[in-house]
């Protein structure tokens, strides 16, 4: 199965928080999208790996993503080494995405920056034909995505570009709320975390509103890129 977009997240819910609206929009335009979570989020203060899996499945269905997998790297302790790179390379070659989305280049949670660099490095290495990988006993062809874009998470990183997600904010919020164990719930008796208070949940919307304000729309999501972004003509800029 070839995908147009393959989105990676260090934890289940990273992709939804950073790029859920963009994914919903691209799917509405006929693009095929997959999500790969690097860890099960098993070190999270609230919920459990099993609960997070159920929530991730629900979010997948809400967004209309065609495939979602979990590589089950160690939450908090995965590293950017050959073993982890090869696991990601196999997935890149399996799904042959034109675009890869991944974690913020720098963030509060150490796994986000680590995951960002790990996926980025794997995307480059995946294009080297002398690195041999197999799937179901067959040698995979080398494949390098055309571009790698990093979504924005906790920190207010200045985006290199933004995507207008007006009309898709509800889909984003619903996908985020699928992770009911993680976010604000007035009836929850679990310990509080930086992402479990009302302010964080509200920030999902007001950040999108602020980025939308900057481009004259209702909502937007921001991304950084690894090379100079280009457009065909001046008229493609909003």
TrEMBL record:
UniProt-listed Pfam families: PIG-L (PF02585)
Superkingdom per UniProt: Bacteria
Gene3D superfamilies documented for this protein: LmbE-like (3.40.50.10320)
GO MF term list: deacetylase activity; hydrolase activity, acting on carbon-nitrogen (but not peptide) bonds, in linear amides
GO biological process: bacillithiol biosynthetic process
Listed InterPro entries: Bacillithiol_biosynth_BshB1, GlcNAc_PI_deacetylase-related, LmbE-like_dom_sf
Protein name, UniProt field: Bacillithiol biosynthesis deacetylase BshB1
Organism lineage string: Bacteria, Pseudomonadati, Bacteroidota, Flavobacteriia, Flavobacteriales
Gene this protein is translated from: bshB1
